[in-house]
Amino acid sequence: MSHRGAFIVIEGLDRSGKTTQTETIQKRIQEAGKEVVCIKFPDRSTSIGKMIDSYLRSQSNLDDHVVHLLFSANRWELASTILAHLKQGKVVLCDRYAFSGIAFSVAKNLPPINLAWARAPDASLPSPDLTLFLDISPEAAQSRGGYGEERYEKEGMQRRSQERISDGKGGGKGTWIIVDAGRDMSAVTEEMWVHIRPLLDGLDTPVGRLWD
Ligand code: DGP
Description:
Layout: E1 7-12, H1 18-31, E2 36-40, H2 47-56, H3 64-87, E3 91-95, H4 98-106, H5 115-119, E4 126-127, E5 130-135, H6 138-142, H7 155-164, E6 175-180, H8 185-196, E7 208-209
Parallel strand pairs: 1-3, 1-5, 2-3, 5-6
Antiparallel strand pairs: 4-7
Helix pairs in contact: 2-3, 3-4, 4-7
Bound molecules: 2'-deoxyguanosine-5'-monophosphate.
The site of 2'-deoxyguanosine-5'-monophosphate (DGP) has 14 residues, from helix 3 and helix 4.
């Protein structure tokens, strides 16, 4: 097995600080002299991503099953890109992944969108080596700027999603770390860095597959 880059996912509720932390961590990895590629899901730039964007902005309505499959398809669109970057030895830093997919769909409480149904379309996607879950209460997240502009940014939906977001972790071979994201930004960054730093020199194990 050849040496490869690490696949790191940052997960959390809306307004948990994922995007800011992803940018900060990206800079740190570059300062450490390593190549890093940042990916954000949903990727709203693709044609599937544009359908998701329109739905999230409430400019279109879609069946909940269709939405779930679109989010998953959006991840599959980039799966081969992720694998190619890892093979080239780059760190792939990903803002949200399949765990959000499960959490937000199962949180809708609509049969038959149960855990097994929700997990199925993401099965066999590249599995992260490390997932950092930025844990924040829905109340604290709501008090941060910008909350409430998109379809899922409602307290009940966020609370139910938070309860479900770790449902996918059991299947992955990678490490799942819960980080208290209610603290100031630099404290959160430092804790994340403790877990990321050891992965920067790459891995010799093959990339895993969700939820093998
Ligand atoms: P963001 O661009 O990170 O603010 O995410 C937009 C919204 O989409 C956010 O409310 C979380 C939700 N979301 C992200 N991934 C998925 C997914 O795979 N499935 C569903 N249903 N929602 C998702």
